Amino acid sequence: MKKIFILGFIILSTISCRAQTIVPVEKMGDYIDAGDGIPDNTYLKDVNNLLTKFVGTWKGNYQGKDYTLYISKTTSKYETITRDRLLIRYLITSSNGSVLENTQSIPDNSPYIIAGSYFSKDLAVYALNFTSKNSLCGNAGTVFIRTKNAANTIISLGFEPNKIMISEETCPGFKLAELTFPRQNSIMLTKQ
Asked: What is the pLDDT of residues 39-49, one digit of tens each?
């Protein structure tokens, strides 16, 4: 009887202790395309250091506003899935130095931190999710960053707002919020 108990315990331990599967972070897009979700015990890891080239402080100017991005690489865990991704905090000032927006001091789990999602198929563009305090009035969507030179000292940032329906209740006068990042043109930023 003792041997059956020990054998049963070993079998149960083996079944419940599944090994973590390491998958390159660039495969996230494949999971999104498949629509089946990410398998349990998966670690989307930056094994090829694709995220590292974006890490740092970046500065640029667009239509009289100065943009400073603080990009960091982090590892986060949600239930049984672990993933490496980028987080972007930002400081936007007017030409006279007035602070227009600043997310530097908010925690990583804040919805207002721009959080990494996936690489394009050709690995040239990294997409991140963006939500602002005026997201219900149209200021939310996807931020796209890409390196613009071989030395990885210049990046471009583009923005595509989510297509949402606004309501009088959340947006008085059905007025769309001013976008944090320009929609039509990319902002060019230089690594500091």
From this structure: 999 999 999 99
